[in-house]
UniProtKB/TrEMBL annotation:
It comes from uncultured Sulfurovum sp. The keyword Transferase applies. Keywords: Magnesium, Metal-binding, Transferase. This is Octaprenyl diphosphate synthase -farnesyl diphosphate synthase ))). Pfam families: polyprenyl_synt. Its EC number is 2.5.1.1, 2.5.1.10, 2.5.1.29, 2.5.1.90. Gene3D superfamilies: Farnesyl Diphosphate Synthase. CDD domains: Trans_IPPS_HT. One of its GO terms (biological process) is isoprenoid biosynthetic process.
Length: 298
């Protein structure tokens, strides 16, 4: 029933009655619609559920439009990002429009759902600001990293699962933990893929996050594993364009210290906890979504 969500988003966009916005929206790749899938699997396909899923996907799309401007990212889902195609101003405004329309429609669902989703958007905005601020220095505090990715990524998934449970008259507690764990694991894997994916697709890693100043989980673990001299070397490379030699050195240190496996294991533990929670409730489809996430290599 993901197609019903797609149609609802299309309808919301058409209601804006603006040809430019419709044309820009048509250029946006839809992505996996993971948040909508979660909501549908928890709550079925009634109209309020479809609307909630559509609104959440519009808010998510808006946040990525802004994020690509903030991160100077010129690709999104292997295609040119909207900011690359039309510039930052257009990308920011399309984000604002999708976000505002989503919020308008959220008010037509229920005050409880509206409160849960809107509060998570406050969190995700705070998380994005933290991400930006943290990238100005060499953060090696895992607790701070975890808090930031919870806010930036997991808070919306937690709210999706919680809101869907409310819509389905289920106890939101376990579903919120499920969404939170999935969100944190999702971001951890995203951060791991920034290191490993380029190696597969480009033949060499770009380490884009590290160059941008982001010390994600693998870098935090690597720093912990290195001796004092190499700690200093890693720190000196942070936030700068990397030579091929230095890129190779980071990758070699990652390999020698088993860093990718260790980081991946941390995400896997969260996924396993989420799967156990859902298995206890006979929510097999939700366990499968969690399982697929840990196998994701894109
Ligand atoms: C992706 O992080 C970014 C997010 C999950 C959240 C972005 C949030 C905002 C820009 C603030 C909220 C704005 C609105 C309009 C609701 P990433 O850069 O680590 O992931 P990526 O690899 O997908 O770019
Ligand atoms: Mg980004």
């Amino acid at each position: 029933m993901l197609s019903a969500v797609e149609r609802k988003i299309g309808q919301f966009v058409e209601e804006l009655d603006d040809k430019e916005v419709s044309a820009l929206y048509a250029k946006l790749p839809h992505g996996k619609r993971l948040r909508a899938k979660l909501i549908l699997k928890i709550a079925g396909t009634s109209l309020p559920v479809i609307k909630t899923a559509a609104v959440v996907e519009m808010i998510h799309a808006a946040s990525l439009l802004h994020d690509d401007v903030i991160d100077d990212a010129y690709t999104r889902r292997s295609k040119p990002s909207l900011n690359a195609l039309y510039g930052n101003k257009t990308a920011i405004m399309l984000g604002d429009i999708l976000y505002a329309k989503g919020f308008f429609e959220l008010n037509n669902i229920s005050p409880e759902i509206s409160k849960m989703i809107s509060n998570s958007v406050v969190q995700l905005s705070l998380g994005e600001l933290k991400d930006v601020s943290l990238s100005k220095s060499f953060n090696i505090d895992k607790k701070i990293y975890l808090e930031m990715i919870y806010q930036k990524t997991a808070s919306l998934m937690e709210a999706c699962a919680g809101a869907a449970a409310l819509l389905a008259n289920k106890d939101p507690k376990a579903y919120k933990i499920y969404g939170r764990n999935l969100g944190i694991a999702f971001q951890m894997i995203d951060d791991i893929l920034d290191i490993t994916m380029d190696t597969q697709t480009l033949g060499k890693p770009s380490l884009h996050d590290f160059v941008e100043g982001k010390t994600t989980l693998p870098y935090i673990y690597l720093y912990e594993a290195l001796d004092d001299e190499n700690k200093l070397k890693l720190k000196s490379l942070h936030g700068k364009k990397l030579s091929d030699n230095n890129t190779e050195w980071i990758m070699l240190m990652m390999q020698e210290n088993n860093i990718i496996k260790k980081s991946y294991q941390e995400a896997k533990t969260l996924i396993e906890e989420a799967i156990t929670l859902m298995n206890e409730r006979g929510e097999n489809a939700l366990s499968h979504i969690a399982m697929a996430m840990i196998e994701r290599d894109f």
